[in-house]
Amino acid sequence: MNIEDRLRKLIVKYVEREELLDNLSEDSVIKDALIIDSLDMIELIIDIETEFEIRIADNEVERLNTLSDIKKLINQKTKEGAA
Predict the structure, then answer these.
(1) Residue 81 pLDDT more than 60?
(2) Which residue among 25, 29, 52, 72 is least enclosed by CB atoms within 10 Å?
(3) Which of 45, 49, 51 has its CA nearest to residue 30?
(4) How far is CA 40 from the centre of its chain?
(5) If we measure between CA atoms, which residue out of 70, 66, 68, 69 comes closest to residue 28?
């Protein structure tokens, strides 16, 4: 399973209407596109940290707005860990 598939599997837990997930693109602002609140976003970040075995600093969380942002950070963090 690739990063995007794993992310979507995590995100679906926080979406009230699953069809919103179908419309999520790389550049969609997650909180707006999925209609999730700040608490759900924090819980999603924790799930991402657990799933990908990474640590996301508070200053990095502030920059995670889109699916693309999250994927880039995961790629960066997992490559750093593998190096």
Answers:
(1) no
(2) 25
(3) 45
(4) 11
(5) 66
Between CA 76 and CA 35 the distance in angstroms is 27
Contact criterion met (CB below 8 Å) for 30 and 41: yes
- pLDDT, one tens digit per residue, over 27-63 is 999 888 888 888 999 999 999 999 999 999 999 999 9
How far apart (Å, rounded) are the C-alpha atoms in residues 19 and 39?
21
**Dist. CA 51–CA 2, nearest whole Å:** 12
- pTM score of the predicted model: 0.86
Helix (H) or strand (E) run with residue 50 in it: helix 38-52
Tell the residue number behind the tokens 């790389």, with chain if given: 26
Tokens standing for residue 52 = 């990908």
